[in-house]
Write a structure and sequence with these properties.
By secondary structure, the protein is α/β, with parallel strands linked by helices. Helices cover about 35% and strands about 20% of the residues. It is built from 12 helices and 11 strands. A 7-stranded mixed sheet has the order 7-6-5-8-9-11-10. A two-stranded antiparallel sheet has the order 1-2. A hairpin with a 2-residue loop joins β10 and β11. It is elongated. Bound molecules: S-adenosylmethionine. S-adenosylmethionine binds next to α6. One of its GO terms (molecular function) is protein-glutamine N-methyltransferase activity. InterPro entries: DNA_methylase_N6_adenine_CS, HemK-like, Ribosome_uL3_MTase, SAM-dependent_MTases_sf, Small_mtfrase_dom. Keywords: Methyltransferase, S-adenosyl-L-methionine, Transferase. This is N5-glutamine S-adenosyl-L-methionine-dependent methyltransferase.
């Protein structure tokens, strides 16, 4: 503890406003967790000042010390110069009301599936009994761990092909005391032979090759394995649709995110009844499908999936 501190004439709000102006002027991309400059600047200021993310606005008029100002400006500088996503700078991302460790081993948690988890997957589950759930392509473990957190009586498995992502997921499992979550290494369903789930949730890679090549610099810090998914973004989603029936219980449900590949999927399989989830901000490329519909349309799905590498 220093014997004395010198305060700047600046408040927290001044720093946040300054950061947001610099971020906008620099043309940063805000596709990771926060979608605007003010929220990102707020996140960085609170992190540098060791303050809680839900700090009461009354502290916004508090003045900062010279040391604190320097720490904030150094973070702003890295965000602008290096384009590192804010969550990787702070090492933390919030998802479904929980704080996850976030670093370059896995994508920054940001899926709208968080909203479904917090709603208990209703109305989609519609009273189905769930004992076992799978989060395929778990990355940081955010979907598996948040699902396990809100459903302590479910057994949840989080699976990913990437060892680095799984090591981050393991740290998050420990951080959030997720005793009912098990992590597995698996190439899609290959490491889950003979296993059956009442609910499969997945946010697989779904960015087209062209879009992946054109993404803003921020995305280059994330593992490409979590993004790239072929010419139309459906390489992995089609295989998941093909193989899910073997791993779903009789009236099981698959919930899958395909983002902007929604349109391509609708064109490839117009007859498959997919229910596109409406979020507070509209549709976000997430569908729900029942096992029996996947079985009924299996031949058409298999033809398309088998044609992918
Ligand atoms: C879009 S990220 C989603 C991560 C996490 N579920 C989330 O919502 O933040 C996709 C994940 O799929 C994993 N992945 C890519 N190909 C895979 C495969 N063949 N089998 C299993 N996981 C795979 C990547 O390692 C990455 O972690």
């Amino acid at each position: 503890m220093p014997a004395s501190v010198s305060f700047e004439p600046l408040t927290l709000v001044d720093l946040i406003r300054y950061g947001a102006s610099r971020f906008n002027a620099a043309g940063l991309s805000f596709g990771h967790s926060y979608d605007n400059a003010l929220d990102e600047a707020t996140q960085l200021v609170l992190h540098a000042l060791h303050l809680p993310h839900d700090l009461s606005p009354v502290y916004g008029q508090g003045r900062v010390t010279t040391e604190e100002k320097d720490a904030v400006l150094a973070l702003f500088q890295r965000r602008v110069d290096e384009r590192i996503p804010a969550a990787y700078l702070t090492g933390e991302a919030w998802f479904a009301g929980l704080s996850f460790k976030s670093d370059a081993r896995a994508l920054v948690p940001r899926s709208p599936i968080a909203e479904l988890i917090e709603a208990g997957f209703e109305p989609w589950l519609g009273g189905r009994e769930v004992r076992r759930a799978l989060d395929l392509c778990t990355g940081s473990g955010c979907i598996a761990i948040a699902t396990g957190h809100y459903h302590p009586d479910w057994d949840v498995i989080g699976a990913d092909i990437n060892d680095a992502a799984l090591s981050l997921a393991a740290e998050n499992k420990e951080r959030l005391l997720a005793g009912n979550v098990e992590l597995r290494k698996s190439d899609l369903f290959q490491g889950l032979q003979g296993e059956v789930f009442d609910l499969i949730v997945t946010n697989p890679p779904y960015v087209t090759d062209d879009e992946t090549d054109a993404l803003p610099r921020e995305y280059s810090f994330e593992p490409e394995l979590g993004l790239r998914a072929g010419f139309d973004g459906l390489d992995l989603a089609l295989k998941i649709l093909r193989d899910a029936p073997q791993h779903l219980s009789e009236d099981g449900l698959l919930i899958c995110e395909v983002g902007e590949a929604e349109r391509a999927l609708g064109e490839l399989l117009p007859q498959l009844p997919l229910a596109w989830v409406e979020f507070k901000v509209g549709q976000m490329g997430i569908f729900v499908v029942e096992r029996h519909d996947l079985v009924e349309h299996h031949d058409a799905i298999k033809r398309l999936a088998d044609a992918r590498a």
